[in-house]
What we know:
Helices cover 31% and strands 26% of the residues. The protein has nine helices and twelve strands. It has a five-stranded mixed β-barrel with strand order 5-6-10-9-8, surrounded by four helices. α3 (112-120) packs across α9 (267-280) and α7 packs across α8 (241-257). The longest helix has 17 residues, at 65-81.
Amino acid sequence: MTDEARAWYAVSSRRRELTVLAPSRATAWWAEVSAHLPGVAADGVVRVDSSSRTAGVIIPACAGAADARRLVNARLHLLHLRESTLCVHATALRCPSSGAAVMLLGGHGAGKTLVALALARRGWRPVAGDVALLDCGGAVPTLAGGTAAFVVRPYAVRRWFPELDSAEADMSQRFRVEPDSGGPLRAAVLVDVDGDPRAGEGVLERVDEHTAATVWLRSSGHLLDRVLEQGRTVLRSLEDSRAARHRHTLVRALARRLGMHAVWGAPGAIADHVERLVKEGPG
């Protein structure tokens, strides 16, 4: 890649800066990519002068926008981890009355966005669409923003919310997410939306501490568990043993300090349980 073919960019996430050296054509990517970077506002990626800068991320010439996002996110994982902030695969919202935050955890397709939509329709404020930042260095775990974009599966939304049209069902369009907002984390909920719309009131169970630590560990490594479309870089290898031990320490402490619940059922029923947990305390 020649000097004329590349450019320098500064990515600001939670007031922490990452310098990126990328193909100059990447300027056209950032508006879309930034919505998938935790804690990065729409204008959070800017082109900068190269003088006295060291690249935190080098985007190969062969990379496209998707690989650029994956590479930047892997480095953001490490940048935040150094400050005891976890990048967690979760959807997060704040209660409209108390300001307390809840994180909805679960694998791809578990129904996090469906439950978030049910809560948002009740006035809850979305804070993170797919990856949430969780500050673990203080006395109380604190939600510190996240990604603005939501992973929305239209067929699932149509099934559970048939009264909504496609525009209303798009969380990213209906509800403005402020990536740098947040609040004290009151509850962590592992969601599992059942396939039967008649699932009733659902089931709420307390998750044991060891299982909770495992959930936190897996979800906090989400940005490293990606496969690049081009090149041979293994993102998981970017987290060295020291960083991995630090993350293990954080998730074990998090599992001790904050109770986790698993909730099975329809999105509305899970939302009912979430509201009660936040109101009454996770126990």
